[in-house]
Amino acid sequence: MSGMEEVSNKQVLARDYINGNPKESDMYLSTEATIKLKVPEGSNAVLVKNLYLSCDPFTRGTKKPTPDMITFFAPNSPVVGFGVGRVLDSGHPEFKKGDLVWGMTKWEEYTLITKTEGLFKIHHTDVPLSYYTGILGMPGMTAYAGFYEICSPKKGEYVFISSAFGAVGQLVGQLAKLMGCYVVGSAGSKEKVETLKNKFGFDEAFNYKEEKDLDAALKRYFPQGIDIYFENVGGKMLDAVLLNMRLHGRIAVCGMISQYDLDEPEGVRNLMYLVFKRIRMQGFFVFDHYHLYPKFLETLLPYIREGKIDYVEHIAEGLENAPAALVGLFSGLHVGKSLVLVASE
Amino acid sequence: MSGMEEVSNKQVLARDYINGNPKESDMYLSTEATIKLKVPEGSNAVLVKNLYLSCDPFTRGTKKPTPDMITFFAPNSPVVGFGVGRVLDSGHPEFKKGDLVWGMTKWEEYTLITKTEGLFKIHHTDVPLSYYTGILGMPGMTAYAGFYEICSPKKGEYVFISSAFGAVGQLVGQLAKLMGCYVVGSAGSKEKVETLKNKFGFDEAFNYKEEKDLDAALKRYFPQGIDIYFENVGGKMLDAVLLNMRLHGRIAVCGMISQYDLDEPEGVRNLMYLVFKRIRMQGFFVFDHYHLYPKFLETLLPYIREGKIDYVEHIAEGLENAPAALVGLFSGLHVGKSLVLVASE
Question: Sorted alphabetically, which InterPro entries does this protein's record hold (chains A, B) (predicted)?
Answer without folding.
Answer: ADH-like_C (IPR013149), ADH_N_2 (IPR041694), ER (IPR020843), GroES-like_sf (IPR011032), MDR_fam (IPR045010), NAD(P)-bd_dom_sf (IPR036291)
